[in-house]
Specification:
This protein has 4 helices and 6 strands, in the order ααβββααβββ. It has a 6-stranded antiparallel sheet with strand order 1-2-3-6-5-4. The protein is globular. It has 146 residues and is α+β, with helices and mostly antiparallel strands. The chain has one domain: Chorismate lyase (3-Layer(aba) Sandwich). Helix content is 21%, strand content 42%. The longest helix has 9 residues.
Length: 146
């Protein structure tokens, strides 16, 4: 994992809800961190998914109880067809971090940016490992994190 530039991240997240700021530094295991934060299991609900020979694009909601606590759009480019993980991606039952861990794919992450609007905060990051490159954009409703 690429080391975080803490001063830059602090500046980028100034004004974020306090409970949301630490999540900007959590990569690949967001579902677990959100479960701990909300005190109940957070699960992945696939909203849309399209697959071609080497690319899977998907939109998911991370759900705690009846609340959508985050949304994510992912573009998964891979030579992952050699891996059994392709079928897990297409099933859409796991988060990306869970998939990478299950299949023992070592990866590095790089925060591309984070910012906020009036009602939401968002971040974009890249996950790269042997045979896989994933770009993820996540959005968080501010009101749930205040």
């Amino acid at each position: 994992m690429e080391p975080l530039n803490i001063p830059q991240l602090l500046a980028q997240t100034e004004g974020f809800p306090p409970r949301l700021r630490p999540l900007m530094a959590v990569f690949g295991t967001l579902q677990g961190a959100l479960s701990l934060l909300f005190g109940e299991e957070v699960w992945v609900r696939v909203v849309k998914q399209e697959a071609t020979d080497r690319t899977v694009e998907r939109e998911v909601e991370l759900v705690a109880g009846d609340r959508v606590v985050a949304t994510a759009s992912s573009r998964i480019r891979c030579t992952i067809a050699q891996h059994a993980s392709l079928s897990d991606i297409l099933e859409g039952k796991m988060g990306i971090g869970q998939l990478l861990a299950k299949h023992g794919i070592n990866y590095q992450t790089r925060l591309l940016g984070c910012s906020q609007g009036e009602d939401v905060c968002w971040r974009t990051y890249k996950v790269e490992g042997p045979g896989v490159a994933i770009t993820i954009a996540e959005t968080f409703p501010k009101a749930l994190y205040e």
